[in-house]
Amino acid sequence: MRVTSPAVITRLVFTVFLSASPAYGQTDFTNLKAKSGDIVFVTRGTGTTISGPLGAISPSSITINQETIPYEPGLRIARKGDRLWNGIIIGGAIGVAAGVTIGAEACLDGSIAPCAAGGAAVWAGIGALVDWLHKGRTTIFEAPRTGKPSVRLMPAIGVERKKVELVLSF
Known about the structure:
Elements: H1 6-19, E1 39-43, E2 49-57, E3 61-64, E4 67-70, E5 76-80, H2 85-101, H3 113-133, E6 137-142, E7 150-157, E8 162-169
Antiparallel strand pairs: 1-2, 1-5, 2-3, 3-4, 5-6, 7-8
């Protein structure tokens, strides 16, 4: 019986992480991965955010809450929610690492593969649960920035959140 080496598993995990590429470098709204009526969050290059249902979509502008927003450098559009896959993958990777190190004590008499698989299954479930409970945003459009590198520190205070966002542009 052949056991998969940790190096192969590590390569697979890095391949999955690197293949999930965000929506960078789009020059117009033609390939926007949203349809009219979807709730979106638009962050302009200045840092102001507008949210609401997506209205009309044209190559040069979109409409949110009856407000027309033209394409501009630094514009970012996100939708509410994200996929569970990243939580499952992160949890599974932690589980494999924990299974072959901490849990290896349970596999002293045999192969370490069941410990790695068991740890991956349990921790992937925990990762999926944490990701499901966390209501994040997924970036679906990001216009390239122009200009010189900058650093901004922005307070983001709301009814249910108090945080500071650090924005690095380069």
